[in-house]
Backbone:
């Protein structure tokens, strides 16, 4: 739990420091799940197991073949070559396949753990900002290139259509909405620095909310004017 924003957001390591993926403020290095480190041990272990599996498979098969041929040469006409080579080859094949399969499982679990941490960070970021997100914002928060962040968000939208939506903004940008944590889809949350330009009306995406408020005020004023005339 971040002490600054109150979100259960993972941290991301930049050098020796750790930062909250939701609010971006500094946190203790091991205060929560790390997006930078999630799944890395399993991924490395899977790669090592895969390399060992191929070494055992190739080396054991070569050793079995060599010993089998040597025994057959020393004892021609006997089954000494098969008796020596087959058990060694079977053991090498079994151990090699087990290492390869376990290595793949470890790698997949590492990728899944890393992706789950990234997804948690994205939902925490959306919950903190309370508005749709762009791939650039997610990429900055997670230290990912914009195309990779866009691919991650697109995959989340396909897997969780009820939790992640895709919209096109007024300027043609792709927006990812999170109705469950940041309000209803399609709602634009204005930035404090943006204002309405009287010459352009509500063309600014953030100005739409302000324009609606002004329309309500104008409508209220027009309804109140006849009463004032009657009082006069």
Residues:
């Amino acid at each position: 739990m971040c002490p600054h924003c109150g979100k259960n957001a993972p941290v991301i390591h930049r050098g020796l420091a750790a930062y909250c993926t939701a609010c971006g403020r500094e946190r203790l290095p091991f205060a929560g799940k790390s997006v930078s480190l999630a799944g890395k041990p399993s991924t490395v272990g899977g790669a090592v197991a895969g390399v060992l599996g191929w070494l055992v498979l190739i080396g054991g098969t070569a050793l079995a073949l060599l010993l089998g041929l040597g025994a057959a040469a020393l004892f021609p006409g006997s089954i000494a070559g098969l008796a020596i080579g087959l058990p060694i080859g079977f053991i090498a094949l079994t151990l090699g396949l087990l290492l390869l399969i376990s290595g793949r499982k470890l790698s997949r679990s590492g990728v899944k753990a890393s992706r789950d941490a990234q997804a948690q960070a994205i939902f925490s970021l959306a919950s903190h900002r309370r508005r749709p997100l762009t791939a650039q914002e997610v990429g900055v928060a997670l230290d990912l290139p914009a195309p990779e962040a866009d691919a991650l968000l697109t995959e989340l939208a396909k897997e969780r259509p009820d939790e992640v939506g895709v919209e096109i903004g007024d300027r043609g940008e792709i927006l990812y909405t999170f109705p469950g944590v940041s309000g209803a889809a399609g709602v634009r949350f204005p930035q404090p620095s943006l204002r309405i330009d009287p010459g352009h009306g509500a063309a600014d995406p953030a100005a739409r909310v302000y324009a609606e408020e002004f329309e309500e005020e104008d409508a209220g004023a027009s309804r109140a004017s006849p009463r004032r005339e009657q009082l006069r």
Q: What stands out?
A: The CA atoms of residues 3 and 183 lie 23 Å apart. Confidence is low (pLDDT under 50) at residues 184-232.
